[in-house]
């Protein structure tokens, strides 16, 4: 398995590096994993450039399927050659992948719920942990349904209905690529340092995220049979997905 050395090397762009880009070869096509920081200018630019260059058969996004119509509407709303105003790197990826089949690989879905319940039972998780997991799942389900409603309203009216305001960082799309890349690396390092200081094993958060990653890996394994795939996921999921998919390739 390679860390896609040829992909970063093909771009003269400091935002496209091995830290955020992995490749896993397959019999039907290559899977390119792109790690992103939500709404960050460097992530948006990385996704746009790589997706445009790879021209994948399938674009896989860390979004629940129910949220895809809303992000498609954001992508369609973009004017000229600019990035979409809303939806960050996800809508930018959809806009760049004009001919690709776009799929959502994130929870909530039935596979996620079944795997989550099975693990909670097998681990004999406490009632308190189970309640927190259920609350988290309920929140994610409501958010996905709200995205679907927002998409319906956007298509039915002349206005764009948004779920969240874009996150603002101390850099902008107008800044040089070098500054964007440096700011993104610093942001990721800070967040990872904070997460590393918090014990999460056995918590509701670990149950949720580990189960999400396993389900996303399974879904990516399925769609790899359809040709070249570019998957856009949060950078914190990048290593876990790479490991899971590499293990499957060795089975």
Task: Fill in the keyword field for this structure.
alpha/beta, 9 helices, five-stranded mixed β-sheet, about 250 residues
What report would you give on this structure?
By secondary structure, this protein is an alpha/beta fold. The protein has one domain (6-250). The protein is built from nine helices and five strands. A five-stranded mixed sheet has the order 1-2-5-3-4, with helices on both faces. A hairpin with a 6-residue loop joins strand 1 (21-24) and strand 2 (31-36). Helix 2 (41-54) runs parallel beside helix 4 (88-96) and helix 3 (68-77) crosses helix 6. The protein is globular and about 50 Å long. The two termini are 14 Å apart.
Give the overall shape, derived from the CA principal axes.
globular
- Low-confidence segments: none
Total domain modules: 1
Strand tally is 5
Describe the largest sheet.
5 strands, mixed
If you compute it from the alpha carbons, what radius of gyration comes out, rounded to the nearest whole angstrom?
18 Å
Q: Give the end-to-end Cα distance, rounded to a whole number of Å.
A: 14 Å
What order do the helices and strands follow? HEEHEHHEHHHHEH
Order of the strands making up the biggest sheet: 1-2-5-3-4
Average pLDDT, to the nearest integer? 82
Instruction: Give the helix/strand class.
Output: alpha/beta
Total DSSP helices: 9
Considering DSSP H and I runs of 4 or more, what fraction of the residues is helical? 40-55%
The fraction of residues assigned to DSSP E strands is: 5-15%
